[in-house]
Amino acid sequence: MADSNQVDQNDNSVPETKVLAIASHVVYGYVGNTMATFCMQALGVDVSAINTVNFSNHTGYKQWKGEKTSPEMISQLYEGLSQSTLVDFDVLLSGYIPSADALKVVVKIARELKLKRETMNPGAFFWVLDPVMGDQGRLYVSEEMVKGYKKAVSGGMEGPDLVVPNGFELELISGVHLAGGDTDQDGGELERCPTGDNYEASLEKVREAMEVLHQRDSVRMVVVTSVRIKGKQQEGVLCVVGSEKKSDGSSRCFTVEVPVLDCYFSGTGDMFAGLMVARLREECSKAGTLRNRGWASDDQVASTDLPLAKATVKVLSSMSTILEKTMDAKNKEMDKYDHTNRRASVEPQDAEKRRQEEVDERMLFLAQTKAAEVRAVRNARDLIYPKVRYEAKNL
To answer: What b/e readout covers 320-331, taking b as 16+ CB neighbours within 10 angstroms?
Structure first.
């Protein structure tokens, strides 16, 4: 008898889908377009990619070669597609953008695509925005980029239909501090610590931030990834929280709890976004909402029954399985990494010893980073036929 939690292997119901993916690219490893494009193609999605950077490897190695794509080149590449009438895209997925000027070009492309597709086929076009700005309280883009993303998100009907930030990015674009609200014995609010490694968010603050995007910016759908919720970190879980707004602008929130893995991975945000494109389109097709503006569900649909919730569960099930397999493979690989791979220390010269120790540490770091590259290709079957491991709960 088949496992009821196993997605039917004959159920490949992702409708024909053409995606324009605008994000970073690396020669080695799986981040940016390299990750997102593979995940979408594994699920039968036709992807065209504009690479915003071309690097030898991702920045997690702390060293790389390559260059950023200029705003002019991004514009020219899109113009070439447009001139040849090759812009019949159903979805735009935008990820890492290297500069504020480049972001302006991407926003312009998104709005042109929306206008063209809405004119020909109302409700047909969907923009997924991953506002890549930073994590754990640390920005790795300029303040101008933060302003640019806030403006992009506030685009109303011309803005993104789904935004997929991490907790720190949700704070930046909404202006709501997720860990706020703590009070002292006299009822006064305590000083807010910057969101970082050790913060714990309030689910009510997460809901508040989502409602800001729904009501202030008219963003229809939001999914925030990897949020540390008060009281949950001790249980070894992170929360993924999603919401689709109702017609009155109020939120419909759900949560999915996933285990914390003791390993640092690169590219998981890109993996989530790429898988979400395919799985959300699949679930909206089943629900008959693809022709609705912004793939909107009726107000009476419960949060846990939303196509967004069902897609999120499938995405996280695939990701958890693959990341666990990656962590196991990393541990085995590092077990083989012995001292013969590093220079032996030389006792007589302290300076030489320190230099060799630094080389040892650097080589160990590079080996660990390489071993933690997500095994997406090797485990592609888990992308296509995930065993459903989680459930969405109403918030």
So the answer is: bbbbeebbebbe
Whole-structure pTM value:
0.90
In terms of residues, how long is the chain? Answer: 395
Indicate the pLDDT class of residue 370, thresholds 50, 70 and 90: very high
For the question of residue 270 being annotated catalytic, the response is yes
pLDDT band at 33 (very low <50, low <70, confident <90, very high): very high
Instruction: Print the domain residue range for 125.
Output: 18-394
Bridge-based pairing state of the strands 393-394 and 253-259: antiparallel
Domain with residue 74: its CATH number is: 3.40.1190.20
pLDDT for 337 equals: 84
What total of structural domains would you count in the chain?
A: 1
Which among 182, 270, 299, 382 is annotated as catalytic?
270
Q: Say which residue, 279 or 264, is predicted with more confidence.
A: 279
Closest CA to 285 of 304, 303, 310, 302: 310
Q: Structure tokens of 314?
A: 């499938």
Residue 3 placed within a domain: no
Q: What is the pLDDT of residues 166-214, one digit of tens each?
A: 999 999 999 999 886 544 445 444 444 445 555 688 899 999 999 999 9
DSSP 291-330: TSGGGPPPTTS-GGGSHHHHHHHHHHHHHHHHHHHHHHHH
As a whole number of angstroms, the distance between CA 112 and CA 84 comes to 15
Token pair of 37 as six digits: 């494009």
